[in-house]
């Protein structure tokens, strides 16, 4: 099936952008010096790189192969939902090992920080 | 043109895997290693989808979806283990 030069150009553009974002995200992991700085590079740039690959894949199968599917959108949605949760857990892991409770401000509530204290127990919870 | 762009993207994500492996080997903290493993999973998802484009089949979506789910669950489980000493409390 003959494809026009514009369609090929658009797909190739998304693939190149995705590759650049992917390599930037992984290079930031060894370039940055602090762990909390290193948390920024993969969670943002690499996720965007995978999003570019998925857009290129969707365009390729829709415009060149001729069948449209929602699988890529599912993977994109899943990755964009789980990347912040993973980053949150990794940040908590780092804080638990490297930050003392005296370095943190008061929570302003009835309970302390969740990484140091046990979760609060509700009195009306059935045992 | 698509073939050249695919080769470029393959090279970028493969080099990214090597850089993540470097961070796993030298990471001073366990949080660094968890982060590098999570990034490796994301790079492998990208490589699987690129291979699906290369082969022209839609089989690799399911594989990449499964890898995404297993990667997220393993990252959370590893973090929970380091944080609380237990995965399911």
Automatic annotation (TrEMBL), chain B:
Primary localization: membrane
Record's signal peptide: none
Domain of life: Bacteria
GO CC terms, sorted: plasma membrane
Membrane topology reported for the UniProt record: Multi-pass membrane protein
Pfam families (UniProt xref): MrpF_PhaF (PF04066)
Record's keyword terms, sorted: Antiport, Cell membrane, Ion transport, Membrane, Transmembrane, Transmembrane helix, Transport
Family stated for the protein in its record: Belongs to the CPA3 antiporters (TC 2.A.63) subunit F family.
Protein name in UniProt: Multisubunit potassium/proton antiporter, PhaF subunit
Protein's organism: Roseovarius litoreus
């Amino acid at each position: 099936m003959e494809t026009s030069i514009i369609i090929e150009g658009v797909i190739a553009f998304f693939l190149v952008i995705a590759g650049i974002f992917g390599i930037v995200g992984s290079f930031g992991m060894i370039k940055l010096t602090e762990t909390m700085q290193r948390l920024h590079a993969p969670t943002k740039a690499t996720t965007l790189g995978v999003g570019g690959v998925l857009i290129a894949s969707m365009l390729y199968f829709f415009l060149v192969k001729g069948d449209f599917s929602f699988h890529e959108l599912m993977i994109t949605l899943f990755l964009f939902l789980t990347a912040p949760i993973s980053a949150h857990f990794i940040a908590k892991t780092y804080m638990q090992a490297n930050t003392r409770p005296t370095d943190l401000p008061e929570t302003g509530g009835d309970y302390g920080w969740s990484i140091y204290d046990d979760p609060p127990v509700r009195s009306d919870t059935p045992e | 043109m698509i073939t050249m762009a695919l080769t470029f993207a393959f090279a970028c994500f493969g080099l990214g895997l090597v850089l993540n492996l470097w961070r796993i080997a030298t990471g001073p903290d366990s949080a660094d290693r968890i982060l590098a493993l999570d990034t490796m999973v994301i790079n492998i998802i990208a490589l699987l989808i690129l291979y699906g484009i290369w082969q022209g089949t839609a089989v690799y979506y399911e594989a990449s979806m499964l890898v995404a789910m297993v990667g997220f669950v393993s990252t959370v489980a590893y973090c929970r283990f380091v944080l609380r000493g237990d995965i399911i409390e």
